[in-house]
Amino acid sequence: MLDLSFPQVMGILNVTPDSFSDGGVFLSAQSALARARQMVEEGAAIIDVGGESTRPGAMPVSVQEELDRVIPVIEAISRDLPAFISVDTSKPEVMRAAVAAGAGIINDVRALCEPGALETATQAGVPVCLMHMKGEPCTMQQNPHYGDVVAEVKDFLLERVEACVSAGMSRDRLLIDPGFGFGKTLADNLRLARHLGELAALGQALVIGVSRKSMIGAALDRPVDQRLPGGLAFAALAVWQGAKIIRVHDVQATVDAVKMVRAIIEA
Ligand code: YH5
């Protein structure tokens, strides 16, 4: 199992043609593998392979399309690289095939809420990251509203953890993620960031993903290619508050930031 006694970096591997952060360049399994290899060399412990775009306004992808995108890449990474593989999907069919192909973590932005997902993930027997999202990717940024965002996210994640445990999953294999940018205003995201310690205190390994997201753009007024310093500051403060997995595009810089914070924590 993945060692989470100290924080680890998860490298994002988009295999979507419409993913503008990676320019849609990593479409073939070979170039995806090359990108994964680079992220492992830079210190990523986990490679998160995703074939569905969950950016605001993104369109749904068919099961077959998603399988065609992610399975060859997971097989290649599993064969060639010393890394854990997570599969960023909400579809039971993709979860099943991905785990058979070598994925060791299911990362579901819909927290196993899709029909059949909870049963499939339980059967698969691998750790699962449960993420909070309000609404669906196509509508989630249309006027999101919360009473107390920290309490709502916490209650949702606890409810999903209990649903997984009731289904037969072991509690120590459940990771939680507040879902930065998923149906949240900038103020909501900042409040969550300020209170990450409360989520870490729930006892499940805490995952966060803010890399290059609009919330950094909005906080700093920076375009997508100038959000790394903001992302590093965010990662450092997340690790300080107990986050165990940081999901990013920029692995090397984030590994250094995480190592620096770790050195201070262990001083
Ligand atoms: C996450 O937070 N996010 S996909 C818009 C961007 C940049 C990046 C430029 N999957 C998460 O990465 N899984 C995604 O604007 C995730 N946590 C977990 N566990 C969205 C993404 C992105 C979106």
Low-confidence stretches: none
Helical percent range? 40-55%
CATH topology, by name, is TIM Barrel
Query: Looking at the structure, what is the overall shape?
Result: globular
Domain count, please report it. Answer: 1
Q: Tell me the strand percentage band.
A: 5-15%
Overall residue-averaged pLDDT value: 93
Rg over CA atoms: 17 Å
Biggest beta sheet summary? 8 strands, parallel, barrel
CATH superfamily: Dihydropteroate synthase-like
- Quaternary status: single chain
CATH C-level label? Alpha Beta
What is the number of beta strands? 8
Count of alpha and pi helical runs: 10
Order of helices and strands: EHEHEHEHEHEHHEHHEH
The CATH architecture name reads Alpha-Beta Barrel
Bound molecules: ligand YH5
List the helices and strands and how they pair.
Blueprint: E1 8-14, H1 29-41, E2 46-50, H2 63-80, E3 84-88, H3 92-101, E4 105-108, H4 117-124, E5 128-131, H5 149-167, E6 174-177, H6 186-194, H7 196-200, E7 205-209, H8 214-220, H9 228-240, E8 245-248, H10 251-265
Parallel strand pairs: 1-2, 1-8, 2-3, 3-4, 4-5, 5-6, 6-7, 7-8
Helix pairs in contact: 1-2, 2-3, 3-4, 9-10
Bound molecules: ligand YH5.
